[in-house]
Amino acid sequence: MYMVFHHAAKELRLLGEGVLEVDFVNGERRRYDMKVLIPKIPCMKRLIEEEDFFQKGVLSPAGWGIRWDDEVDTDIEEIYVNGVAI
User: Fold this and answer.
1) Edge-to-edge strands, sheet with 65-67
2) What pLDDT is attached to residue 13?
3) What integer pLDDT is reported at residue 6 of this predicted model?
4) H or E, element range at 24
């Protein structure tokens, strides 16, 4: 048996040029640069190339992900685990 932890987010700030900040329910805050995902997930390049598109990102209702459209989204755990605590 294994445990899965989900760190729910409560607020998203899209700073620009693919950089975002997330406030988590547990009181922590992370800054994350979406550029690191481009080598693994090429469609993320759109977040860097199209600022208007990047600014349309929204936090999922449960706070477990960020979504831009049907093709571009990310799990909030990526932000929590690999983001920089601020």
Assistant:
1) 58-59, 65-67, 73-75
2) 98
3) 76
4) strand 19-24
CATH fold of 10-85 reads NE0471 N-terminal domain-like (3.30.2020)
- Cα–Cα distance, 27 to 17 (Å, whole number): 25
First-to-final CA distance of the chain: 33
Q: Encode pLDDT of 63-74 as tens digits.
A: 999 999 999 999
CA distance 67 to 73: 4
Give every residue of the chain whose pLDDT is below 50, as ranges. Answer: none
pTM over 0.85: yes
Question: With b meaning 16 or more CB within 10 Å and e meaning fewer, what string describes 8-38?
Answer: ebeebebeeebbbbbbbeeeeebebebeebe
52: its two tokens: 């208007």
Calpha distance 77→5 (Å, rounded)? 8
